[in-house]
Amino acid sequence: MTKVTAIYPGSFDPPTNGHLDLIQRGSKIFDELIVAVLRNLEKDPLFSVSERVAMLEILIEDYRNVRVDTFDGLTVDYAAKVEATCVLRGIRAISDYEYELQMALMNRKLQPGLETVFMMPAEKYSYLSSRLVREIAQLGGAIDCLVPSLVAQKLREKMDIAHKFADAETIRAEAERAIERKTKPRKRKS
Ligand code: PNS
After folding, report:
1. What is the spatial distance between Cα 78 and Cα 63, in angstroms, rounded to a whole number?
2. Catalytic residue among 11, 19, 52, 134, which?
3. Using a 6 Å CB cutoff, which residues line ligand 1?
4. Which of 9, 109, 128, 155 could serve as a FRET partner for 139 with CA atoms 20 to 30 Å apart?
5. Cα 37–39–44 angle (5° rounding)?
6. Residue 148 · residue 116 · CB < 8 Å
C-alpha cells in the first residue's frame, strides 16, 4: 500500500491544545504527518520560528510518525517537495469554513493532486485560537487550560521580558522628564 504523507501547515504562534488535538487525530489517519511552520516575514510574531519549532518538537515527542519542519512560499510547493498528498487543516466552527474552503479550493487549483483533509478538534477547543491565547497572555489572563504547560511557561517568560522592558521604558521616560524639568530655564515671576 502507498504511504500517505500529510502536511499540517500553519503559524503555530503559539501552538495550542487545539493544534495538539489535531496532530493527535492526524497521526492516527496518516502514515506520516509533517507539522509545517510557515516562515512568514510579513507577520510580526510573538515567538520566532525557531522557538515555535523547538516547542512543537517537544510536544510531538510521543508520536513516532510526526515531525516538524518549516517552509516558505506556497503550501502546494512545499507539499510537492516533501511528497505529501494531503494537507491537514482544522475547522473549529462554521466561521472557519469560508476561509478554509477558499484556501483548499485554491490549493486544488494550483495542485490538483493535493487533497485537503479537514478535521474537527475536540469541542472544548472550538473557541481556541493562537491569536486569543496571545491576547489573553499579554493582558495577564489565565492561559494554562488553553495551551500545553510547556507553552504556558514560555508565554509567561515572554510576558516577563515584555513587562521588564516596559518598566525600563517607563523609568527611562520619567528620568528624561526629570532632567528636562531640571535643565529648563524657569519663568521669572513678574
Ligand atoms: O495557522 P494559519 O495562520 O491559519 O495558517 C495559514 C497557512 C500557513 C496555512 C496559509 O497562510 C498558507 O498556506 N500560507 C502559505 C502561502 C500559500 O500557499 N498561500 C496560498 C494559500 S491558498
Report:
1. 22
2. 19
3. 9-11, 38, 74-75, 103, 106-107
4. 9
5. 110
6. no
Burial of 65 (0-12, 13-18, 19+ CB in 10 A): middle
132-161 pLDDT per residue, tens: 999 999 999 999 999 999 999 999 999 987
Under 8 Å between Cβ of 36 and 78: yes
- Residues 64-120: pLDDT tens digits? 999 999 999 999 999 999 999 999 999 999 889 999 999 999 999 999 999 999 999
Closest CA to 55 of 102, 100, 14, 113: 14
Unique residue bearing C-alpha cell 488553553: 146
Q: What is the DSSP string of 53-86?
A: HHHHHHHTTT-TTEEEEEE-S-HHHHHHHTT--E
Query: What pTM does this model have?
Result: 0.87
What torsion do the CA atoms of 52, 55, 60, 65 make, to the nearest 10 degrees? 40
Q: Is 50 one of the catalytic residues?
A: no
Catalytic residue among 27, 52, 89, 92: 92
CB-CB contact of 35 with 69 (8 Å): yes
Task: Return d(Cα 178, Cα 87) in angstroms, integer.
Answer: 58
Determine the distance separating the centroid of ligand 1 and the alpha carbon of 190, expressed in angstroms. Answer: 69
- Asked if residues 66 and 29 have their Cβ atoms less than 8 Å apart, the reply is no
